[in-house]
Specification:
679 residues; alpha/beta; 5 domains; nine-stranded mixed β-sheet; five-stranded mixed β-sheet; 29 strands; elongated
Length: 679
């Protein structure tokens, strides 16, 4: 931490024309941040080993310290104003009728120092203004702009003003300078209903002056904005320096006179606020509106600022958070920019913008998806929607998810369903990269693939204990750069970032998913009570998902082979998909894992949920007799099969079987049944 003693030791050799030190060590000097001693010769800058650095004229000590460090050495002595000889320039201040009210002379000494003096017409420079206050004088060039139209540049100093005039610009400046008093209403009245562009010097004093002028002009001027130049001026650089460095009139632009709100997305809004230091950008990202809060990732940056942008996540409805933000910005960019006003303006506009977004879509412009585009993997994964796969621990959910990821990434059919052959991202909270790689290898071996995955097809993403909301922005960039079509999250519990039983946690989770705009498979568990209907036993998770699937293993004991039943618990459109049976083989703990669809009859729980005609349809892959069908179904008698076949003539057709005359003489030949396919 910087101490007064450390500041004293650092700066004592850089004080301009020092006086002292005294017995206590105090050194007096001229302040480099204002015209110190130009008229009185008195020093106002104090450096003390106990009390530190202080300018008694009011300059901030941090700014003074920075200026001293930049000079890197002692400054020349400032002399008392000298008006001997003739001035090198005389600037005449006239009223609107062209009458000269006062003259301002610029004197330069042989040592390169400058001084200024005032006089009224008919008097000497040493007599001054004869009691007239500078604040009562008109603006410089007031007579020219009174009878003209167009934009007016408000600059600092007559030299800068004349440089603009040579370039064909209309300008004004104050007689009292940046360190003088606040402009009077009488001085600024001439700018009523005019378009004014403020051009401060490139220092804190200039920014502070123009902020005052802006506040006074807003109620009376037509527009007020700040100049935006394409050149980085030196410290204290002004309009004269700009044109001396090759700047042109065509290169001048304006920051605009109004605050501009830019919608990037519904949750990302930027507010651009003009200021004396250029445009200030308040970027609000990942906005989340809650009951008593409006949380956002806020970044504040200035055009051309040397400081890094200031960013934090905050609740913009919190007074304490807002006050803390103001203090931090004042410390970083300076107090002269009136941060309280700008923060309040930016926060008010982003609240209005966020709550008044028009989400309406003209349905005449909407185009439905083609049937083949409704599902990424039919019927498991609806396109660009969240799907939840839930079940008890040990129900093979992770192996199913990794198997699905591999098949989608390389374009192999998964359990009979076509896949798109597009990149997949696997966000893993449950395992490690090593455990994932081992499972991936075993599944690939089970598929007969020994060369591994192709590059840039399947990406592993470690959850690192951070909630999904903290991964969203990085995931969006990865999805965009890779063209990924599927995100698998294993699992919801640690990804949700809170207690999954609470509705606000589930809603926040699905808000994060919506920002990704990608098909997602979300792995979840069931509660200790064994609720097989809803993920986590929660209606909130069930309602927000587009489709939910429950997975259960048939065999309770640990065996090298098992059967899984996958049951659809929710659909949004159409009929509920049939349950699916999967057979898993994993004899060798380090060997291949083979997952394949199996007959429904292998899983009695699934058979119980199928209609008789659906079960007949599944086994009737070639013409069969009723007895053959019954043998395949094993738990339905011939009478039931016969009745179901006759009851659904649109599904099934009876065919005559070719038999010998001998068999015909013995009785009616057996009948063959087959599927009826639409012509």
């Amino acid at each position: 931490m910087t101490t007064p003693k450390a500041i004293y030791e650092e700066l004592k050799n850089f004080m301009p024309d020092p006086k002292g030190p005294s017995s206590s060590g105090q050194i007096w000097s001229f302040c480099p941040c204002h015209p110190d001693g130009a008229k009185t010769g008195r020093r106002s800058l104090s450096l003390h080993p106990v009390y530190g650095l202080k300018c008694w004229a009011g300059c901030q000590w941090e700014t003074v310290a920075t200026e001293l460090r930049n000079r890197q050495g002692p400054m020349p002595v400032r002399q008392v104003s000298r008006v001997d000889g003739e001035p090198v320039a005389i600037y005449r201040y006239k009223d609107v009728n062209g009458n000269v009210i006062a003259e301002h002379g610029r004197f330069e000494q042989s040592a390169g120092q400058k001084s200024f003096a005032w006089r009224t017409p008919g008097r000497t420079w040493k007599e001054g203004l004869n009691g007239i206050r500078q604040v009562d004088l008109p603006l410089y060039n007031a007579d020219q702009i009174a009878s003209s139209q167009g934009v007016i540049y408000f600059v600092e100093g007559e030299k800068a003003s004349d440089a603009c005039t040579i370039q064909g610009l209309m300008t004004v400046t104050l007689p009292q300078g940046a360190s003088g008093s606040t402009p009077s209403p009488q001085q600024l009245a001439i700018l009523e209903q005019r378009d004014v562009i403020l051009w401060p010097d490139n220092d804190e004093a200039g920014a502070k002056l123009m902020t005052k002028v802006e506040a006074l002009l807003r109620p009376i001027a037509k527009t007020v904005s700040y100049v935006d130049i394409p050149i980085n001026l030196p410290h204290k650089g002004d309009a004269h320096d700009y044109f001396s460095m090759g700047g042109t009139v065509d290169g001048l632009t304006s920051t605009g006179s109004e605050i501009v709100v830019e919608h990037k997305t519904a949750e990302n809004i930027t507010v651009h606020v003009p200021s004396a230091s250029g445009l200030i950008h308040f970027a609000f990202e990942d906005i989340e509106k809650k009951k008593h809060a409006m949380d956002t990732e806020l970044t504040v940056s200035l055009n051309g600022a040397t400081h890094e942008p200031y960013g934090l996540r905050m609740n913009i409805l919190s007074n304490s958070a807002t006050d803390s933000l103001r203090r931090n910005l004042e410390n970083l960019y300076g107090k002269e920019l009136q941060w309280t006003q700008m923060i309040n303006s930016a926060f008010r506009r982003v609240r209005e913008a966020y709550t008044t977004i028009d989400y309406a879509i003209d349905t005449a412009t909407m185009e439905p998806l083609d049937a083949q585009d409704l599902f990424l993997v039919n019927p498991l994964l609806p396109t660009d929607s969240p799907t939840i796969l839930f079940g008890d621990g040990g129900s093979f959910k992770t192996y199913l998810a990794i198997s699905l990821a591999i098949h989608v990434a390389i374009g192999r059919p998964w359990m009979g369903a076509e896949t798109p052959c597009l990149p997949v991202i696997y966000l893993d909270y449950e395992g490690t990269p090593q455990s994932f790689a081992n499972r991936q290898r075993r599944i690939l071996h089970g598929m007969g693939i020994d060369v591994g995955m192709p590059h840039n097809s399947l990406f592993y993403w470690a959850g690192r204990g951070l909630p999904l909301a903290d991964h969203v922005e990085a995931l969006k960039r990865k999805i965009q750069s890779t063209g990924a079509c599927l995100l698998i999250i294993d699992s919801i519990g640690p990804a949700a970032g809170g207690e999954v039983e609470k509705s606000e946690v589930s809603l926040s989770y699905f808000r994060s998913l919506a920002k990704l705009s990608i098909t997602t498979l979300n792995i979840a568990h069931i509660t200790k009570g064994g609720d097989k209907k809803y993920p986590f036993g929660s209606i909130y998770w069930h309602n927000e998902a587009r489709r939910t699937w429950y997975v259960e293993r048939v065999q309770e004991e640990e065996l090298p082979e098992l059967d899984l039943g996958i049951y659809c618990r929710k659909v949004n459109d159409g009929a509920r998909p049939s349950a699916t049976a999967i057979h898993a083989v994993f004899n060798d703990p380090h060997g291949p894992v083979i997952l394949s669809p199996t007959a429904i009859k292998a899983v009695p729980e699934l058979a119980d949920q199928q209609s008789t005609q659906k079960r007949i349809w599944d086994v009737l892959i070639m013409p069969m007799t009723i007895r053959q069908i019954t043998e395949e179904l094993f738990d339905i008698d011939e009478t039931t099969v016969d009745q179901s076949l006759r009851r659904h003539p649109k599904l099934f057709i009876r065919q005559e079987q070719e038999v010998s005359q001998e068999n015909k003489n013995k009785g009616r030949p057996p009948q063959l049944w087959a599927r009826r396919h639409n012509e």
